[in-house]
Amino acid sequence: RYMKRQVACRGDIDSLNAPMLAIYESLIPAEEEMAKQKQLLALLEKIVCKEWPEARLYLYGSCANSFGFSKSDIDVCLTIADADTNKSEVLLKLADLLQLENLQNVQALTRARVPIVKLMDPVTGISGDICINNVLAVVNTKLLRDYACIDVRLRQLAFIVKHWAKSRGVNETYQGTLSSYAYVLMCIHFLQQRRPAILPCLQGMKTTYCVNVDNIECAYFDQVENLFGFGSHNGESIAQLIWGFFSYWAYCHDYANDVISVRTGTILSKRTKDWTRRIGNDRHLICIEDPFELSHDLGRVVDKYSIRVLREEFERAAEIMQYDPNPCVKLFEPY
Ligand code: 3AT
Ligand code: MG
Q1: Which ligand has the nearest atom to the CA of 70?
Q2: C-alpha closest to that of 17 among 134, 208, 149, 156
Q3: Ligand nearest to the backbone CA of 292
Q4: pLDDT along the chain (335 residues), means of 10
Q5: Which of 119, 197, 256, 278 is the most buried (most CB within 10 A)?
Q6: Choice from 58, 171, 181, 186 to test ligand 1 binding pocket (greatest atom count within 8 A of CB)
Q7: 130 forms bridges with which residues in the sheet?
Q8: Considering only the top CATH level, what class is 13-27+151-330?
Q9: Is Disulfide bond among this UniProt entry's keywords (predicted)?
Q10: How far does residue 235's CA lie from ligand 2's centre (Å)?
């Protein structure tokens, strides 16, 4: 395997456990915030079902995948039969209904890549987006949430990585860096690859959950309560894992040839995916396979400029975790 550099981690790495966990704790949303999100969802359900009785609403994204910070917006998916032909009409109608019920800042963005209605609820103070029939996102939200139940170190690692990415300005897909969804997949993959493994590969196990979404079969083992303690043979601490994550992306990942794949729990080659050359806007400079939409590379937003920014940030983070006297401050310094 390709190894640019392999270093042993600093001797005092475990002194970083407590301060890193304190940062994690400070980012977790409080119970009452989750209750308010549920309250807003119930209000939206009431409004929607008056007009479309058979429609359903689902929370997805960080408010439902257990990787959400406190004070995040909520992402809601409206499922409704036959809306795909006239999504814009449904969104405009929905925007009218919301306005009539006194929701604020209501705006239908019908031409966006993922068309949505934006809203703010003056009662709870929560903002959110509603999209239509984006069922794959609802299913990948469940997959992430199920992984998070298996070992708490996933949630801790992903919170720190997301916090780092937001602080350093590398969580902006419109600027060619990666989505939060991509970072969480990178964390899951990383924990699947530890030896002993900290996470299993749920899609490689017996199917206990199966749905067909837009002709994609989404099947995996979702009885995760039976997997509690799976990673207990691996005693690595959160500080060691944060160090390992950044070192992996700074020095060990083979950007020229490798695709990380949560679906298989392994690394695939770009050649087998036919991701070796630029097609249209997809450059495949860092490759992260979507667990269900297999032709979808979450790294496709990355261009030849932003790949440099990303790799420099991974190297900066790895160096800080290795040598800096105060990594818990330095890692998250605004760029
Ligand atoms: P934040 O806390 O809002 O940063 P998030 O988990 O809500 O993180 P995103 O806003 O990036 O993540 O995306 C919202 C959800 O939409 C997450 C995932 O279920 C889905 N999603 C996002 N990007 C993709 C993608 N490229 N392909 C498939 N699903 C995606
Ligand atoms: Mg979000």
Answers
A1: 1
A2: 156
A3: 1
A4: 68 97 98 95 97 96 97 96 84 97 97 95 97 97 98 98 98 97 98 97 98 97 97 97 97 96 98 93 95 97 97 98 96 96
A5: 119
A6: 181
A7: 76, 117
A8: mainly alpha
A9: no
A10: 32
Instruction: With CA atoms as reference, report the closest residue to 44 among 75, 89, 85.
Output: 75
Adjacency order of strands within the sheet including 104-109: 56-60, 74-79, 127-132, 116-120, 104-109
| pLDDT value for 1 | 45
Ligand 1, residues at Cβ distance < 6 Å: 60-62, 65, 67-69, 72, 75, 137, 140-141, 179-181, 290, 298
Dist. CA 12 → ligand 1 center (Å): 35
Residue 75 CA to ligand 2 centre (angstroms): 6
Contacts of 89 (CB under 8 A, 6+ apart): none
Write out the residue limits of the CATH 3.30.460.10 domain(s) in the chain: 31-136
Q: Whose CA is nearest to atom 16 of ligand 1?
A: 61
Least distant ligand from the CA of 137: 1
Residue 3: the pLDDT is 55
Instruction: For residue 137, give the ligand 1 atom closest to its CA.
Output: 19
- Per-residue confidence (pLDDT) for residue 8, from 0 to 100: 87
| φ and ψ at residue 43, rounded to 5 degrees | -60, -45
As a whole number of angstroms, the distance between CA 303 and CA 308 comes to 9
CA of 102 to the centre of ligand 2 (A): 23
Thinking of the domain 31-136, which architecture would CATH place it in? 2-Layer Sandwich (3.30)
Average pLDDT, the chain: 96
- Residue 4's pLDDT is 58
Q: How far apart are CA 263 and CA 4, in angstroms?
A: 26
Kindly give the distance from the C-alpha atom of residue 205 to the centroid of ligand 2, in angstroms, as a whole number: 29
